[in-house]
Amino acid sequence: MTTVLIDYGSGNLRSAAKAFERAVAEAGLSDTVVVTADPDLVRRADRIVLPGVGAFADCRRGLDALPGMTEMLIEQVAKGGKPFLGICVGMQLMASWGREHGDHRGLDWIAGEVVGLDPADPALKVPHMGWNDLRFTPGAHPLLAGIEPGQHAYFVHSYQFATAEPAQVLATVDYGGPVTAMVGRDNLVGTQFHPEKSQATGLAVITNFLRWRP
To answer: Other C-beta atoms within 10 Å of 148: how many?
Structure first.
């Protein structure tokens, strides 16, 4: 099995790749982890990961700047049903729209929009940065298997994914009100938190993704 992490100039790829490689080794899996900007490798992959750090529009432009990559993702993920994990802005790009510094089209794989954080408590700063406790219903998704509500994950973001369908929010955190931490449907899942920086919780999410058969 091959898992590809897409390199489009907008991800913390070194630490993400190392986290996936560690998960493979510790779980005793035989998967190969590849970082690539080559759409043909995405076509041949078994699992696809889209990281992302920065502004929504910049990440979308970076993805579209790779010849054939957006089209290959649509073919393999949206139409082909390959397991897909979006991380941080990689998750946000699944939305219909990003509202950061204007209106920008997303991939429209999960209906909704990416909007600015607006904590009810004015003492809470934006960006939301640091550790926060995950809130979810046990059994909410296979990627949360073995993780207990209240385990913490690491966040760095100023915008969140507001889905059109509340049932597609798999987990939240409290930051002056509920904030989307994880979304998903069918073969798609995304985390607003960084699993590669979230220690045991993040390693469990990655391992669950590598074992997932949607």
So the answer is: 10
